[in-house]
Amino acid sequence: MNRRWLTFLLFFAMIPAVAVGGALIFRERHYAWISLCVAVLTCLPIVYDFEQRETGSAELMVLSVLTSLSVAGRFLFAWLPGFKPVTAITVITAIWLGAEPGFIVGSLTALLSNFYFGQGPWTPFQMFSWGLIGGLAGLLARPLRKHKVLLCLYGVFAGVFYSLIMDLWSTFWMGEGFSLARYLTYATAAIPTTIEYAVSNVIFLLALTGPIGDKLDRIRVKYGLFRETENEDPAD
Amino acid sequence: MVVRPRRHPLVPLTLLLSVLLIAMFAQTPALTLFAFIGATLYLATAARSVLTMRSVIGYLILWVLVAVTNPLFSTGGATPIVFIGGRPYTREALLYGIHLGGMLISVLLWFRCETFLVAEENRFFLFGRIAPKSALLISSVLRFVPLLRRRAEAMRGAQTAVGVYDDPDWLHRTRSTMTTWSALTTWSLEHAIDAGAAMKARGYGLPGRTTYRTCHFTKTDAVCLTAILALDAVTIAALATGRLDISYYPEIITARAGLLGRCGIAAFAVLTLLPFFSFLKEDLRWCYYRSKM
Fold first, then answer.
1. What is the reported pTM?
2. Contact A57 B131 (CB under 8 A)
3. How close does chain A come to B47, measured CA to CA in Å?
4. How many interchain CB pairs under 8 A, A with B?
5. CA distances from residue B75 to A167, B80, B89, B91, B210 in whole angstroms, order as listed
6. Which member of A111, A207, A219 has the closest CB to residue B178?
7. How many angstroms separate the CA atoms of B191 and A220, rounded?
8. Which residues of A touch B133 (CB under 8 A)?
9. Is residue A67 a contact partner of residue A105, using CB atoms and an 8 Å limit?
10. How close is the nearest chain B Cα to the Cα of A142, in Å?
11. Cβ of A180 under 8 Å from any chain B Cβ?
């Protein structure tokens, strides 16, 4: 077993340890504490791995441009809450450049756009959910690239997933403990927003996958970037 | 004018993190109250512009909303006020709701304090030493976002001037936005490759490079940091031994605080008021210097 896997295991062993330790101190609020621990400690090993591996300066700049595009997209559509290209750009990054870049772009967008839209205890949850949406898309890169239908389905899934995670946040933070009735109430109240997320994800994915995907593929092949994270030939 | 304490960023960050964690998760009304008072005093003095009437009203609405809805979901209390649809709306649950709302508001207020406690140029300083690549990503994104907006505006302006895409039709405008977006992507990705090459040419990533530092860890910083950690330790000890416990259901029962409990509350009070007092000190010094001129 190499060092990289050992570090991953260490981080994942830390999740229950920190969660249980904190729950013993903060008895009544253990749901909120454990969920925060899971959100933060899931992001840590991926950031750690990203820091450890060789990343060229051009790759770093490409990632920061993609993150900026998605932050700027959150601005561009600020007047329409919920209608954001963030998920689409994260997913497109993930399927063309790999799971880890997808995770990084997704979670950094959450962190950085909140410097403009307001930081709060929700930031780790947004980082977690957008990061996971990106990471998962990277693992499913091959089918998502080939079939537009699957891409649309993934957009719908991402919208629902994001909404459900954020409802979980509201349940833990705006109420005591975990109450299923409260969670269902929040989830039901959020159905219009969830539909809006899903629809906007599908629209943006369909509109952007061609232009941005082609460009990412072009610079990847032309400059030989992201060879480590993505080995397969996109032509197949 | 915002006066920032000239401490190493580690000091305000430790303070912020410890107050936030305790305020978020400790279940003690006294601690919540001090977190709220500390943040409000600091924001009202150091950052007068932040607490506008609108934001205060927003926070109050959120507070009332959390407080009022809590008894609808939990019926644990023993003293019903009214019955709604056969379910008791209890006094204990309402009080708990008020506490929860206060907790949420004070955490949100402390997040607002962050902007003023930690100077922008130092925000990622610590981060840059632990995770240099992420820090570089973050700082370059913060630089790219305004740049991208300017580029998008320039492109839109050019298109309008040439007379393309001036159709007020909704579909047409959306399509023109998409075209601008696509061009922006190309432009920015090309720029990213150039920037990457320029960084490489200047030796990015080579060993033996030094970084520009604006902050140095002084003895005063060490004293401040130790004091903050000691205060944390007292509060956490009081929390961990259950001296500050409160249970709301079926009736409100508070644990006997004892000496340790009272010390814990006092330590947290000092912790939350530190930013306010340090601002007051700087402000007084500023007024004193000015009056001598």
1. 0.86
2. no
3. 16
4. 157
5. 21, 9, 7, 10, 61
6. A207
7. 14
8. 50-51, 55, 60
9. yes
10. 23
11. no
Residue A138's pLDDT is 93
Pairwise pLDDT comparison (B107 vs A211), residue with the higher score: B107
CA geometry: angle B72, B75, B79, nearest 5 deg = 110
Contact A72 B245 (CB under 8 A): no
Structure tokens at B220: 């005063």
Instruction: Point out the residue among A69, A121, A179 whose CB comes nearest to the CB of B107.
Output: A121
Contact A58 B193 (CB under 8 A): yes
Q: Does A104 touch chain B (CB under 8 A)?
A: yes
Candidates A68, A86, A179, A200, partner chain B, best to mutate (most B CBs within 10 A): A68
Q: Nearest CA to CA, how far is B108 from chain A (Å)?
A: 6
Contact B25 A64 (CB under 8 A): no
Q: What's chain B's average pLDDT?
A: 85
pLDDT in tens, B184-221: 899 999 999 999 999 989 888 788 777 777 678 889 99
As for the ipTM of the complex, it is 0.85
CB A130 within 8 Å of CB A91: no
Spell out the residues 6+ positions from residue B16 whose beta carbon is closer than 8 angstroms to its own: B110, B113, B114, B117, B118
pLDDT tens across A79-134, in order?
677 788 899 999 999 999 999 999 999 999 999 998 888 888 899 999 999 999 99
Question: Which pLDDT score, from 0 to 100, does residue B1 have?
Answer: 40
